[in-house]
């Protein structure tokens, strides 16, 4: 049985910046959004759109006290912050970042008002969008359900494309569903994004948090642990590096 996902989630936005004084003879670090790139890929502003694997606020009733990607043992160990650490080191500066849980879109799908609910995220006009959704959506068993899921994805990707023309990376689900993953890939391909297949990660039970520590709540335990989060970041980073090898 697949784990139960998000409960009582709030949106979170993180603006990251570092100020430093360079030592004599050293190049100063670039500030946020100051021409940051991974290869040819601009990474000054990065938007993460996901579900509890991306961000989940404290939920003591299920034994979760973190305010980051469930179920990493610390903020810096979830896939978002592992990926941001690599980007920062490669680009020589800290990107501006927004991290948003959009589990409601997964559940409501075409009943979710993207332009209104994600007004701030669209206005951010990110250079890169990491889209990590799907797990909260029911598996589509009918043509109507498949169309509804596909239409939701297409509309979201179209809205993002109209705001900053970002490079979009769409990952497959951590708990695989062949039909949803197929629709995610198709929508991503149609929008000119990069699809990141997590199939090998999902197939390894050692990537779940329950394999690393005792967690009473089955839903929390089934989320990626530190090893799983690191593996997700590895796949996304490899895709970003590859995308950065070609001029846009």
Structural class: alpha/beta
Tally the helices: 9
CATH superfamily (homologous) name: SGNH hydrolase
CATH class: Alpha Beta
Task: Give the overall shape.
Answer: globular
What is the correct CATH architecture? Answer: 3-Layer(aba) Sandwich
Helix content: 25-40%
The percent range for strand residues is 5-15%
Number of domains: 1
Fold-level CATH name? Rossmann fold
Instruction: Work out the radius of gyration.
Output: 18 Å
Report mean pLDDT, rounded to a whole number. 89
Q: Main β-sheet, in a few words? A: 5 strands, parallel
Total beta strand runs: 7
- Low-confidence spans: 6-28
Could you explain the architecture of this structure?
With 248 residues, the protein is α/β, with parallel strands linked by helices. The chain has a single domain (37-243), classed as SGNH hydrolase (Rossmann fold, 3-Layer(aba) Sandwich), CATH 3.40.50. The protein is built from 9 helices and 7 strands; from the N terminus they run E-E-E-H-E-H-H-H-E-H-E-H-E-H-H-H. It has helices spanning 79-91, 103-108, 114-117, 119-123, 143-161, 178-190, 199-203, 218-221, 226-243; strands spanning 37-38, 41-42, 45-50, 96-101, 128-132, 167-171, 194-196. Strands 4-3-5-6-7 form a 5-stranded parallel sheet, sandwiched between helices. Strand 3 (45-50), helix 1 and strand 4 (96-101) form a beta-alpha-beta unit.
């Amino acid at each position: 049985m697949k784990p139960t996902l998000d409960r009582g989630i709030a949106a979170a936005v993180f603006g990251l910046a570092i100020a430093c004084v360079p030592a004599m003879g050293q190049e100063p670090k670039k500030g946020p959004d100051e021409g940051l790139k991974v290869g040819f890929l601009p990474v000054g502003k990065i938007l993460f759109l996901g579900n509890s694997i991306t961000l989940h606020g404290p939920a003591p009733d299920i034994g979760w006290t973190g305010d980051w990607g469930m179920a990493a043992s610390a903020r810096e160990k979830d896939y978002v912050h592992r990926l941001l650490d690599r980007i920062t080191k490669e680009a020589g500066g800290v990107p501006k970042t927004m991290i948003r849980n959009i589990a409601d879109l997964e559940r409501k799908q075409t009943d979710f008002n993207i332009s209104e609910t994600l007004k701030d995220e669209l206005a951010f006009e990110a250079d890169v969008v990491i889209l990590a959704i799907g797990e909260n959506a029911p598996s589509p068993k009918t043509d109507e359900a498949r169309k509804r899921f596909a239409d939701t994805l297409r509309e979201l990707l179209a809205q993002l494309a109209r705001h900053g023309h970002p490079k979009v990376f769409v990952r497959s689900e951590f708990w695989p569903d062949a039909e949803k993953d197929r629709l995610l890939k198709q929508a991503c391909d149609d929008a000119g994004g990069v699809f990141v297949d997590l199939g090998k990660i999902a197939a390894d039970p050692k990537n779940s948090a329950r394999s690393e520590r005792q967690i009473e709540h089955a839903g929390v335990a089934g989320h990626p642990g530190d090893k799983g989060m690191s593996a997700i970041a590895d796949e996304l980073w490899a895709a970003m590096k590859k995308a950065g090898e070609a001029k846009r």
